[in-house]
Write a structure and sequence with these properties.
The protein is mainly beta. It has 1 helix and 9 strands. The protein has one domain: 3-layer Sandwich (Rieske Iron-sulfur Protein), CATH 2.102.10.10. Helix content is about 10%, strand content about 30%.
Protein backbone atom coordinates (compact mmCIF):
# COMPACT_ATOMS: atom_id res chain seq x y z
CA UNK A 1 0.00 0.00 0.00
CA UNK A 2 2.83 2.42 0.88
CA UNK A 3 4.53 1.65 -2.40
CA UNK A 4 1.39 2.50 -4.42
CA UNK A 5 0.87 5.68 -2.47
CA UNK A 6 4.50 6.71 -3.02
CA UNK A 7 4.19 5.96 -6.75
CA UNK A 8 0.96 7.95 -6.99
CA UNK A 9 2.54 10.88 -5.13
CA UNK A 10 5.60 10.81 -7.39
CA UNK A 11 3.47 10.74 -10.56
CA UNK A 12 1.33 13.62 -9.30
CA UNK A 13 4.40 15.68 -8.47
CA UNK A 14 5.90 14.93 -11.89
CA UNK A 15 2.71 15.97 -13.71
CA UNK A 16 2.43 19.21 -11.75
CA UNK A 17 6.11 20.05 -12.32
CA UNK A 18 5.93 19.33 -16.05
CA UNK A 19 2.88 21.57 -16.37
CA UNK A 20 4.93 24.49 -15.05
CA UNK A 21 7.46 24.53 -17.84
CA UNK A 22 7.65 27.73 -19.82
CA UNK A 23 6.75 27.62 -23.49
CA UNK A 24 9.71 29.16 -25.30
CA UNK A 25 8.32 28.63 -28.80
CA UNK A 26 8.14 31.89 -30.71
CA UNK A 27 5.45 32.45 -33.25
CA UNK A 28 7.59 34.84 -35.29
CA UNK A 29 8.34 34.67 -39.03
CA UNK A 30 11.77 33.29 -39.79
CA UNK A 31 13.47 34.98 -42.72
CA UNK A 32 16.85 34.25 -44.19
CA UNK A 33 19.18 37.20 -44.80
CA UNK A 34 22.83 38.27 -44.70
CA UNK A 35 23.43 42.03 -44.29
CA UNK A 36 26.66 44.05 -44.12
CA UNK A 37 26.84 47.43 -42.37
CA UNK A 38 29.91 49.52 -43.20
CA UNK A 39 30.82 51.92 -40.39
CA UNK A 40 32.45 54.35 -42.84
CA UNK A 41 29.09 54.80 -44.60
CA UNK A 42 27.41 58.11 -43.64
CA UNK A 43 24.16 56.30 -42.81
CA UNK A 44 26.04 54.32 -40.13
CA UNK A 45 27.81 57.22 -38.38
CA UNK A 46 25.63 56.89 -35.27
CA UNK A 47 27.22 53.48 -34.64
CA UNK A 48 30.68 55.00 -34.15
CA UNK A 49 29.79 55.83 -30.54
CA UNK A 50 28.64 53.57 -27.73
CA UNK A 51 24.88 53.89 -27.38
CA UNK A 52 24.41 54.74 -31.05
CA UNK A 53 21.56 53.10 -32.94
CA UNK A 54 20.35 52.93 -36.53
CA UNK A 55 17.70 51.16 -38.58
CA UNK A 56 18.59 49.14 -41.66
CA UNK A 57 16.90 46.86 -44.17
CA UNK A 58 16.86 43.11 -43.60
CA UNK A 59 15.06 40.75 -41.27
CA UNK A 60 11.27 40.55 -41.26
CA UNK A 61 10.40 44.28 -40.92
CA UNK A 62 13.90 45.74 -40.91
CA UNK A 63 16.77 45.80 -38.42
CA UNK A 64 17.66 47.79 -35.33
CA UNK A 65 21.42 47.91 -34.76
CA UNK A 66 22.75 49.16 -31.43
CA UNK A 67 26.36 49.67 -30.32
CA UNK A 68 26.65 48.54 -26.74
CA UNK A 69 29.48 48.26 -24.28
CA UNK A 70 29.26 44.79 -22.82
CA UNK A 71 31.97 43.08 -20.75
CA UNK A 72 34.48 45.84 -21.55
CA UNK A 73 34.11 45.11 -25.27
CA UNK A 74 33.96 48.28 -27.36
CA UNK A 75 33.17 46.22 -30.46
CA UNK A 76 29.90 44.73 -29.23
CA UNK A 77 26.78 45.27 -31.33
CA UNK A 78 23.22 44.07 -30.96
CA UNK A 79 20.98 43.47 -33.97
CA UNK A 80 17.24 43.02 -33.54
CA UNK A 81 14.28 42.66 -35.85
CA UNK A 82 12.30 45.85 -36.18
CA UNK A 83 8.98 44.04 -35.83
CA UNK A 84 7.27 44.27 -32.45
CA UNK A 85 7.12 40.67 -31.17
CA UNK A 86 3.59 41.22 -29.83
CA UNK A 87 2.08 42.74 -32.99
CA UNK A 88 4.47 41.45 -35.69
CA UNK A 89 1.68 40.61 -38.16
CA UNK A 90 0.16 44.10 -38.10
CA UNK A 91 1.36 46.97 -40.30
CA UNK A 92 1.82 49.24 -37.26
CA UNK A 93 4.37 46.87 -35.70
CA UNK A 94 7.48 48.57 -37.08
CA UNK A 95 9.53 49.72 -34.06
CA UNK A 96 10.98 53.22 -33.85
CA UNK A 97 14.11 54.20 -31.93
CA UNK A 98 13.50 56.63 -29.07
CA UNK A 99 15.16 60.05 -29.18
CA UNK A 100 17.68 59.03 -26.51
CA UNK A 101 18.61 55.75 -28.28
CA UNK A 102 17.58 53.72 -25.24
CA UNK A 103 14.33 52.10 -26.36
CA UNK A 104 12.56 50.72 -29.40
CA UNK A 105 8.89 51.70 -29.29
CA UNK A 106 5.90 49.96 -30.90
CA UNK A 107 3.23 52.18 -32.41
CA UNK A 108 0.54 49.48 -32.09
CA UNK A 109 0.38 49.05 -28.33
CA UNK A 110 3.05 51.36 -26.95
CA UNK A 111 5.37 48.52 -25.86
CA UNK A 112 8.98 49.52 -25.23
CA UNK A 113 12.07 47.35 -25.51
CA UNK A 114 15.61 48.07 -24.33
CA UNK A 115 17.99 48.39 -27.26
CA UNK A 116 20.86 47.08 -25.16
CA UNK A 117 19.53 43.53 -25.06
CA UNK A 118 16.03 43.58 -26.59
CA UNK A 119 14.25 42.87 -23.30
CA UNK A 120 10.80 44.35 -22.70
CA UNK A 121 10.69 47.38 -20.42
CA UNK A 122 6.90 47.64 -20.23
CA UNK A 123 4.31 44.93 -19.60
CA UNK A 124 5.24 43.03 -22.79
CA UNK A 125 6.53 39.54 -22.05
CA UNK A 126 8.48 38.64 -25.20
CA UNK A 127 11.90 40.07 -26.04
CA UNK A 128 12.87 41.35 -29.46
CA UNK A 129 14.06 38.84 -32.03
CA UNK A 130 17.87 39.05 -31.93
CA UNK A 131 20.08 38.08 -34.83
CA UNK A 132 23.70 36.95 -34.98
CA UNK A 133 26.09 39.83 -35.31
CA UNK A 134 29.86 39.87 -35.94
CA UNK A 135 32.24 42.80 -36.29
CA UNK A 136 35.68 42.77 -37.92
CA UNK A 137 36.67 46.34 -37.04
CA UNK A 138 35.13 47.90 -40.14
CA UNK A 139 32.07 45.88 -41.15
CA UNK A 140 29.17 44.54 -39.09
CA UNK A 141 27.70 41.32 -40.49
CA UNK A 142 24.16 40.45 -39.43
CA UNK A 143 22.55 37.19 -40.46
CA UNK A 144 19.98 34.64 -39.60
Amino acid sequence: MKRHLLLLWTLTLFLVASGCTKNNNRDFPIVSFDEYIYLNNPSSLDLLNIGGAITHSGGYRGLLIYRRYNNNDLNDFGAFDRACPTHYAQDCSVLEISDDNTFAECACGGEKYLLFDGSPSTDAVTSLMEYRCTFDGTVIRIRN
